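Team,

Forwarding the record for the chain on the shared tracking sheet. I've put the sequence and predicted structure together so nobody has to dig through attachments.
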Amino acid sequence: MHISDGVLPAGILAGSGVATLGLGGALLWRADAQKIPRVALCTSFFFVASLVHVPMGPTSAHLLLTGLVGIIMGPLAFLPILFGLILQALLFQHGGITALGVNALTMGLPAYAAWGLFRLGRSVRFKGSPFVFGFLAGWGAVLLSLVLLKVVLTFADESFVGVAWVVFIAHQPLAVLEGIVTGFAAVFLERVAPGVLEEQHE
């Protein structure tokens, strides 16, 4: 789901780059040093998940696991995604340096939506199944990323409308798979390390 260098106009690249730099800097400033190992762990599995990808014009299809990053990291969810994207761009040319800002926003912001949804589902009022709300978090994060990607590509150039729809449709099975993986991961974490989830939902 990476956008490559040279696809988007300079205005979008500059604006998204500034927003990413500001959000990433603010999170680093407030990050608790004890959370750094967890940031590194989430960066690792986000990075590895996208190593197997299928090129699709200006983007690619692969696992994201941004919903899982969201429910594990909570307020710091943007950092592992940003760091993972930097490594992918530098080491494997997935996406690009100039497109780093827009890629980070289209994948990182949905991680917060996943966190909020999972937090709502696991609240005292609802006490929903960790699998169900984990599934919704993983599935919803991918769908929201696709919507944001479609908006960005369409806004950049109307000729990308067709590409945006192809990407959106092609990623639907991936969204379901992401939901299943995130759901099982949430169940596993609740059983073996409930503190990982509880501290993000207090």
